[in-house]
Amino acid sequence: MKVLILGSGGREHAIAWKLSQSSDRPTIHTAPGNPGTLIDGRNLPLPDLSPATFLAAAEIVQADLTVVGPEAPLVAGVVDLFQSHRRAIIGPTAAAARIEGSKVFCKSFLDRHNIPTARAGKYASRQEAALHLSFLGFPIVLKTDGLAAGKGVIIAANLNEATAALDSLPEAPLLLEEFLTGEEVSFIVYVQNGKAIPLEATQDHKTIFDGDTGPNTGGMGAYCDGRILTAQQTSVIMDTIIEPTVSGMSTDGAPYSGFLYAGLMMTSDGPKVLEYNARLGDPETQALLHRMDSDLLATLLDGATPVWKPAPSVCVVLAAHGYPGAIRTGDVITGLDHASCQVFHAGTVLRDGAVATSGGRVLGVTHSGPGLQQAIDNAYREVAKINFAGMQKRMDIGAKGLKRW
Q1: Does residue 353 lie in a domain region?
Q2: Are residues 136 and 216 in the same domain?
Q3: Strand partners, 203
Q4: Residues of the chain whose pLDDT is less than 50?
Q5: Contact (CB, 8 A) for 245 and 278
Q6: What is the tally of structural domains in the chain?
Q7: pTM value?
């Protein structure tokens, strides 16, 4: 069997790594891929990242199944194009992917279907939003419509911060949203034929610095632990959020298929939706698939219920100089040969026989342990072996989960 993975980041490397372990022994192609995906399969260099180019790649390798990693191709309609050519592909159509592609659409959908979420106001321009900055009190959350690589959200503590944040956002539809308190959880399901199969909960670490400080990033690390949610909490999430979302999308004429990521806040009033993503998370996927003890391909093809290892897993992201702002690329990475754990490549490139940085989030150092503290210690022991100029990392990935032990 031939499987094509679309994308070039750490999530795609994790998918390739896990699918390569399938009992069906699939041939793995990643387009365009990175140096890490070469370890588990073959890469296909591409002239661009358009849906038409991805379809051409699938036809070149005669892919039996295509798995879409990032959000941009989904929003651009890559699934619609593949389906029109009768090619099997995992992911939502462009109409369904609006649940991530437009924050305004998502908020309207949640409100229309009575799915728990923060109160918000929707505004057509920065000028209109500026007139309502104080209506929900402070702190307040500002969100710009459209894709923003995980960085389209700003939390402002007061009016001055909110005004400055508003000026920094693009002139597009905007949301001013109530600030929710509680613990944030990433809850991902796989939707096939209208049935949502829950995966294990994970917890992302969004900001660049320890203690959840500094600007938001695409994610500086994640951990996956069976104690993040209780069975009762999982049941409530499925009953009040996931199932109404899947049925609501169908009712609205955009049936959902593929991975659906719910960013949740576990408030004192119960779980509420912060955002939806139309794909697997990054870096949540790295920690999630590291814990999966069953065949990912069997779940994708047949909806087989996943099985999980009891040992928690931790993924620590190593980021480039300047991230999440203007990044520097081309720094040579050392120590990869000494790492004795799974290191997922994200923003890397091969130059003159060496691995160098090529993106904001460079590597995802991923390890496990019999308990969360051991998993954290194991991951950071391996992190210490790797270096490149300007390397950034958080030193508290997984620390919030220790209170459960």
Answers
A1: yes
A2: no
A3: 223
A4: none
A5: no
A6: 4
A7: 0.95
